[in-house]
Amino acid sequence: MKKKVSVIGAGMGGLSAAIELIYNGYDVEVFEQNNQPGGKMHQLSFDGHTFDVGPTLVMMPEIYEEVFTNVNRKPEDYISLIKLDPMYDVYFAENYRHYSLNSDLLELMKMVEAMGEETADGFLRYLSDIYHRYQISLKYFIRRPFRHKRDIYNPNMLIQALRLKTFDSAKNMMAKYIPNKDLQEMLSFQTLYIGVSPKHGPSLYNIIPMIELLYGVWSLKGGMHAMAEAMEKLFLELGGTIHYESKVDEIVTKDRRVQGLVVNGDFISSDIVVSNADFPYTMTELIKDDSVRGQYTPAKIESMDYSCSCLVFYWAVDGEYHHLPGHTFIISEDLDKNLDQVFSGELIDEPSVYLSIPSNIDNEMAPEGKSSFYLLIPVSELGTAEYDYSEDVIDYYRQKALEHLKQLPGLENIERHINREEIFTPMDFESKFSAYRGATFGLQPTLRQSNHWRPQAKSLECEGLYFTGSSTHPGAGVPIVIESGRICASEIRKDYY
Most C-beta atoms within 10 A of its C-beta, which of 128, 167, 184, 358? Predict the structure, then answer.
């Protein structure tokens, strides 16, 4: 008889696990509180404009493709990848000096060599060293679970952990290789993709810019949400069921064994439960039995370190701006102070901003003659912020962002051309996606909250309970969360084959 699996949440981790499980003979139903798949990879549409709510670019496209090849499907039948050239532009707010980055090594070396021989030499050594560590990480850490302490505390794994050299910060490591401060900040800044400051993120996370530079940055036809739609389509083709607008109220357990779910007040019996809801939210809101929580008591959950959040403006804009790339970063004059304020909770004096123009990549994302602008500011999560995200605070950040944008070519009068605005605040990430404290990327991937120290896929406190998503191993970022779903499914198959 097929084991019945109930998956909480149709985010990337939940859908990834659900697809693997149903393909391998399990009876799988997904319960999603919103009206579309994707979790934070949601989609927003108004006045003919389309926006991705959360993630906006593709890295590690092979992991996207494996979702389909792992179940004997062709990726090209479901998604269409677009390689970006340039990958993105970077401006430094000090005097708005400008760099354009792509993954063409010839063009890249022209830029780096112009910064001096020492910087060029250090840059190549950085790529070589971090590439080596990336291969170790893929083989021994990213793609395997740590169910028991012995899975990490054994001679071979301890040797591999030492080879990763994770004890330095991303910022310090980059400075040791690259003397040019602009290049240091362009590269180390990207730990914010997973919600951690380069001052506190382990040096291993400098794999993020390496992956971009060696493998490119991509997009998807139809935006990032197209991946969620493709995974939904595949899951349904395989015989799965998704219940939308179905908020899970409780994971029901008895004698430390899963019994099922309460969904919109109704009990759903299940042999296995996979929670793709944010792990801290799952532990504090969905599980009622302290014995099932184990070490993750409400006090423990509250004491953990959380990623930054995001304040995102979605603008319907008159005109087309094809002289700008799809992605632009504007880095604060004092990046250290900027990041310190994000993670200390102070109101940010000079925020860095990220601008995505999805209609420059896919013209169907905006009506003819118009553009869709997505403007993101990394901000403090709700548990850290020393202020409320009131209308006055939101307007403060909006004006700071517009001051930056007006320095970009062709955007001198951008404010006049914004026809309509929608906003996502940390409160929206909390209420709409159950992100604990509105932390967009879940638990911070600090050293003591990574690998075997991070919540794992299998609960050792409750039979039949499993987890996936950005707060679980291996961490945040779309491809990594997809991988967490695959790990979760493999753990279930190990127990219920």
Answer: 358
Low-confidence ranges of the chain (pLDDT < 50): none
Burial letters for 101-137: b for 16+ Cβ neighbours within 10 Å, e otherwise? bbbeeeeeeebbeebeeebbebbeebbebbeebbebb
Residue type at position 330: I
β-strand pairing of 218-220 with 97-101: unpaired
Alpha carbon separation from 115 to 110, 177, 180, 181, 245 (Å, rounded): 9, 13, 7, 10, 53
**Per residue in 16-52, pLDDT tens?**
999 999 999 999 999 999 999 999 999 999 999 999 9
Letter string b/e over residues 389-422, b meaning 16 or more CB atoms within 10 A of that residue's CB: beeebeeebbebbbebbeebeebeebeebeeeeb
Place of tokens 């420059």: 360
Instruction: Give the tens place of pLDDT for each residue, 152-206.
Output: 999 999 999 899 888 889 999 999 999 999 999 999 989 999 999 999 899 999 9
Please name which of 442, 480, 496, 494 lies closest in space to residue 143, comparing C-alpha atoms. Answer: 480
pLDDT tens-digit series, residues 374-410:
999 999 999 999 999 999 999 999 999 999 999 999 9
Enter the pTM of the model.
Answer: 0.96
Residue 146, pLDDT score:
94
